[in-house]
Design brief:
Elements: H1 8-20, H2 28-34, H3 38-43, H4 59-80, H5 86-96, H6 99-109, H7 111-114, H8 119-123, H9 130-148, H10 150-169, H11 177-189, E1 194-201, E2 208-215, E3 218-225, H12 228-243
Length: about 250
């Protein structure tokens, strides 16, 4: 489907968003389409340009972006790690392009603030849903590819996933630290870790959680995350790494 026309205010918002990403779009309509969730077309809301009827959404761009992202991630890993086996590369890639990682990158980029959602999805917290954020990032990658070609989209993706590759190699993402900490705590102290939410801050669509964990009387953290689960994982990592010396 052809992207619908967009209004002047939305164009200004999209230009500022693209500028923040250091990306120049020839077609703002294509950028807008990449940020339009299917809930908009499902509700049959009018297009921003004023025409009525069912709107196009970002699902086709997401399909394309997923393939482009996979190719770029595989290429980066192949070039960076000539000594790793196919299985090792595949394991790293599966984490780097996971929903958890992509949604986190999407939040850092501010995709949640420029998404177009249907009323129902907006009311149920769609801007904070990992699946929606990750899908929108893939759609954006597809849009950059169509608008600018392979080299610009490769640079766009590489800037954002190289650091995630480094984190995976440092075992800061791929490990389930809550499980590791529980096993270690039981082995050392015959006790379970206890997590406590210290506070939460920030707007509802980008809430930041701070969590600490108590193990055998010692408190570790607080650690932060964009979900309580992520903050607990980070607190568990801090505690587990300290307790390794024991």
């Amino acid at each position: 489907m052809t992207p619908p026309a967009i209004g002047a205010e939305r164009k200004r918002e999209l230009r500022l968003f693209a500028k923040s990403l250091a990306v120049r779009f020839k077609s703002l309509e294509l950028l807008d389409l990449s940020l339009t969730h299917r809930s908009v077309s499902n509700e049959g809301l009018p297009a921003l340009g004023g025409s009525c009827g069912r709107r196009a959404n970002n699902e086709r761009l997401e399909f394309l972006g997923d393939a482009v992202l996979g190719t770029i991630a595989a290429s980066l890993l192949y070039q960076r790690f000539p000594g790793k086996t196919e299985g090792e590369l595949a394991k790293i890639k599966s984490v780097v392009v996971s929903e958890e990682i992509l949604s986190g990158i999407a939040l850092e980029m501010g995709i949640d603030r420029v998404l177009t959602l249907g009323k129902g999805e907006e009311q149920t917290g769609g801007r904070t849903k990992r699946a929606i954020l990750a899908d929108a990032l893939e759609a954006l990658i597809g849009a950059v590819y169509l608008d600018s070609g392979f080299t610009p989209v490769r640079n766009f993706v590489a800037r954002r996933i190289n650091q995630e590759i480094n984190r995976v190699l440092e075992k800061k993402v791929s490990q389930d630290y809550k499980s590791l900490l529980q096993e270690l705590s039981q082995r050392l102290y015959k006790a379970y870790p206890v997590y406590r939410l210290v506070n939460r801050s920030g707007p509802e669509h980008q809430r930041l959680f701070r969590v600490e964990v108590r193990v055998h009387g010692a408190v570790y953290g607080p650690a932060t995350g964009y979900s309580k689960k992520a903050a607990e994982q980070e607190a568990a990592r801090l505690a587990w790494e300290k307790l390794q010396d024991l």
